[in-house]
Amino acid sequence: YGFAMQLLQSNGYLKKVAEENPISLASAVLNVAAVGLSLNPAKSQAYLIPRNVKMGDKWISKICFDPSYRGFCDLATMSGEIKWIQVNVVYENDTFLDNGPGEKPSHEYDAFAPITERGELRGVYCVAKTKDGDFLTTVMREDELLSIRDKSEAWKRNQSGPWKDFPVEQRKKTVVRRAWK
């Protein structure tokens, strides 16, 4: 509850939507707690996001619980089925090879090179190691990521929001969400 109040005090639009639809705020905060995540900014596990959603034939604003990619990863490892998860971005000058089902992919790159030297972004991947020692890999190309970005209400409206402010983090979140399925 305390972290939710801090978020409301620091974001005027979030506060306005919460005042207009307090039930959505209560539901979102309860959902955060119910799944075992935190709104603590230091953990970066979950967010309260104001969204416009269509209810019947009209649009309303509400507060939605949105797990971060770190939150999804924490949930997976808390279950005990997954030992660890890694999410990474692949650029055109990197060497990346998906080695097939059950195998860890190969990704070679100079971690200290400026991003501009690594070339254009090609995609992202998520690899999880199971408790049995297998690897589960999900790979997404840049065109798939952009297609998902283009469905974001904030992006459609004025190319703003997290896809503009945190483009790499949004890509990571997108591949983790797909892997979660």
Secondary structure blueprint with pairings:
Elements lengths: L1 H9 L1 H9 L1 H14 L10 E10 L2 E10 L1 H10 L3 E10 L3 E3 L8 E3 L6 H4 L2 E10 L4 E7 H8 L3 H6 L3 H4 L1 H14 L1
Antiparallel strand pairs: 1-2, 3-6, 4-5, 6-7
Helix pairs in contact: 1-2, 2-3, 4-9
Estimate the mean pLDDT confidence: 93
**What is the H-and-E element order?**
HHHEEHEEEHEEHHHH
What is the helix fraction of residues, given as a range? Answer: 40-55%
DSSP summary: helix tally: 9
Shape: globular
Low-confidence stretches: none
The assembly state of the depicted protein chains is single chain
Structural class: alpha+beta
- C-alpha termini separation: 29 Å
Q: State Rg.
A: 18 Å
Q: Which strands sit side by side, in order, in the main sheet?
A: 3-6-7
How many beta-strand segments? 7
The main sheet comes to:
3 strands, antiparallel
Percent range for β-strand residues: 25-35%
Q: What does this protein look like?
A:
With 181 residues, the chain is of the alpha+beta class. The longest helix is centred in the N-terminal third of the chain and has 14 residues, at 22-35. The chain has helices spanning 2-10, 12-20, 22-35, 69-78, 115-118, 142-149, 153-158, 162-165, 167-180; strands at residues 46-55, 58-67, 82-91, 95-97, 106-108, 121-130, 135-141. The protein has 9 helices and 7 strands. The protein has a 3-stranded antiparallel sheet. A two-stranded antiparallel ribbon has the order 1-2. Strands 4-5 form a two-stranded antiparallel ribbon. Helix 1 (2-10) packs across helix 2, helix 2 (12-20) packs across helix 3 (22-35) and helix 4 runs parallel beside helix 9. The model has no long low-confidence stretch (mean pLDDT 93). The protein starts with a helix and ends with a helix. The chain is globular.
